[in-house]
Design goal:
TIM Barrel
Length: 263
């Protein structure tokens, strides 16, 4: 399998999923990851399939609606959301669903989360790549554990996982060390960056301190064959041209550093 460089629809917010497919096609991204969210198009399987076909860009992953602001998207029952995410993935040809661990107040959902994810993978044939999160903290306070069974997927027996570099920055966690702990269970990458602040910054890769270039080179050296998806925050861009520049820079960064060095 050849690793592809994809674009998350979250990277173009507040523009829509339709715009994300347009950017991906124009700039030369290989795939799109669809963040199921408040954008109505992202919730409609037929619309996602039509966008992929119209722009000639494959869908590499579906990001389940498990963020705080998407708690009511596709209902409030968390396992139902994951089943629906798998159905969308199957319908659009994606092999991966990205999912966050439960919040600590979702105790019933969290109680059997690890085994439940494994059972879903068997029943659907879709990889549920559990994403690394982070302790919630203010700049001058200790972190609070807000996820169960925990924010670090390498501590659990998940078959498939995601590393997000912005989340690693908040947690002050070395992403290369996490990748080494995960081994071949690392299936998916959210390529972005962070400065180590308490905010989930999702910077353009290379503009933070997580060592995004070294991380990509490590993946290449170790034979990573999963998906790499650019997931950056462009909300503060002055307009479409600046957003497009950030998306182009991110794609070029990925292609420059995810390369196996030859002797």
């Amino acid at each position: 399998m050849t690793t592809r460089i994809g674009l998350s629809t979250a990277s173009v917010y507040p523009e829509s999923s339709a715009h994300a497919f347009g950017y991906a096609a124009t700039l030369g991204y290989d795939t799109v990851e669809v963040m199921v969210g408040i954008d109505a198009l992202s919730q409609q399987t037929a619309a996602v399939r039509q966008l992929a076909e119209h722009h000639g860009v494959a869908v590499s992953a579906i990001h389940a609606p498990c963020l705080l602001f998407t708690q009511r998207v596709w209902g409030t029952e968390p396992w139902g959301k994951l089943e629906r995410s798998a159905e969308m993935a199957q319908a659009v040809g994606a092999e991966v669903v990205v999912v966050h661990p439960p919040f600590r107040w979702q105790k019933e959902y969290a109680r059997d989360f690890v085994n439940g994810i494994a059972a879903l993978e068997v029943s659907t044939g879709v990889a549920f790549a559990v994403e690394n999160m982070y302790p919630w903290r203010a700049s001058s306070r200790r972190g609070m554990e807000m996820y169960l069974p925990g924010w670090d997927p390498s501590d659990e027996a998940y078959a498939n996982t995601t590393i997000d570099l912005s989340h690693a920055a908040i947690a002050q966690s070395d992403p290369i060390e996490m990748a080494e702990r995960l081994g071949d269970r690392l299936r998916h990458i959210h390529l972005t960056d962070g400065s180590g602040s308490a905010k989930d910054e999702h910077l353009v890769p290379g503009r933070g301190t997580t060592g995004a270039a070294s991380f990509l080179r490590h993946l290449a050296r170790t034979g990573f064959e999963g998906e790499i998806v650019v997931e950056i925050n462009t909300r503060k861009c002055a307009g479409r041209d600046e957003r497009e520049d950030d998306l182009r820079e991110s794609l070029e960064f990925a292609r420059e550093h995810f390369a196996v060095a030859t002797p």
